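User: I'm putting together notes for a lab meeting next week and I want to include a structural view of one of the chains we've been expressing. I don't have a solved structure, so I'd like a prediction I can at least talk through. The sequence is below, exactly as it appears in our construct file.
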Amino acid sequence: MPPSAITVGKVRLTRVSYAEVSVPPETFGLTADDVAAIDWAEPTWADGTQPRAAAAAWIIESGDARIVVDPALAADDLLRNDTDASAHQQAFASLLERSGFPRETITHAVATAKSRKPP
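Assistant: Thanks for the context. Below is the predicted structure for the 119-residue chain, given as structure tokens.
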């Protein structure tokens, strides 16, 4: 999915998606009926009765600040494991660069959830 962006006042928000998968609704504590009842969910947030999970990053640009929020965090446990983490990290960095957001231009990084615990 190509990056999508919105502007709110002087702030630009861009979503860069690395990977997206459809998962059983139980993954999120939902039922198929719960997902089907959300009129606006499809096609962005659901495929039929299956919610979509994504490894994506939000880029917030305001003034001289360029902030990346939750790079790949939302679907981390679904899309990777400890043996391939480095490969995904490099691939995501390459995608961000191709999307116009190379690492050296990021001024801040925000993670909104704690990292995974080691096994």
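A couple of points you could mention at the meeting. The beta strands are 4-8, 11-22, 46-47, 50-62, 65-69, 108-110. The first strand starts at residue 4 and ends at 8.

User: Perfect, that's what I needed.
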